[in-house]
Amino acid sequence: MRGNEIVGAQTSWHRKMEDIFKKKEFVSVWVRDPRVQKEDSWHSFIDYEICLHTNSMCFRKKTTCVRRRYKEFVWLRQRLQDNALLIELPDLPPKKPFFSLSNKQQLEERIKGLQQFLEKILQNTSLLSDSRLHLFLQSPLSPKNIEACASGQTKYSVADAIQRYACSSRRFPVETEYEEQSKTYSDSDSESSSSGLGHSSDDNTFQDCKTKLSERETV
């Protein structure tokens, strides 16, 4: 009798695993919640929350939220392009010298453009093996520290950085109107992007992910 129970439990487990593998992989990303951050006594900037939700094997954390500013998106695009010269990357929304949080149209256009940029990036399987992309989306590390980590110049690995620093959150965006702002703020987009420390050294997980995705595309 016990033997039958064991066989039944194993069968049930295998069915559950089959159901998991049958589920289609997805990667959902949102850009939302613009906020003004003080840089110093004279300067301020606007950053945005990036929420990622996925069941993809390419990502160590399945639900994360981080905050990034416009110039960090510029940095990411340049670094991805440097590492994938034959891939035509999507454009970012244009930089505006005087960007106001109180200008609803400007704000919505930028948020939409940033989200579309990330969505297109995440659809390209060749880019998913770049550890800098994962650190950008799943850790609050600065571009300089992302470069150092991806190049193996830190005491912690890419996986450690994501596991330790990524802030899991189930606070996902809903279609609501942005709250009216009582004050006008300016976002200085004229700051130059950080210089890199070299080419990225991809984590084995990301390399395996790239290989498996490539094999899947040929089926």
Chain-wise SSE layout:
Elements: H1 2-22, E1 27-38, E2 44-54, E3 63-69, H2 70-83, E4 99-100, H3 104-122, H4 131-138, H5 143-150, H6 158-165, E5 186-187, H7 204-218
Antiparallel strand pairs: 1-2, 2-3, 4-5
Helix pairs in contact: 4-5, 4-6
Task: Provide structural commentary.
With 219 residues, the protein is of the alpha+beta class. The chain has seven helices and five strands, in the order αβββαβααααβα. The strands form two sheets. The chain has a three-stranded antiparallel β-sheet. It has a two-stranded antiparallel ribbon with strand order 4-5. α4 packs across α5 (143-150) and α4 (131-138) packs parallel to α6 (158-165). It starts with a helix and ends with a helix.
Which characteristics define this entry?
219 residues; two-stranded antiparallel sheet; 7 helices; 5 strands; 16% strand; globular
Measured on Cα atoms, how large is the radius of gyration? 20 Å
Biggest β-sheet description: 3 strands, antiparallel
Shape label:
globular
Question: SSE order in H/E notation?
Answer: HEEEHEHHHHEH
In order across it, which strands form the biggest sheet?
1-2-3
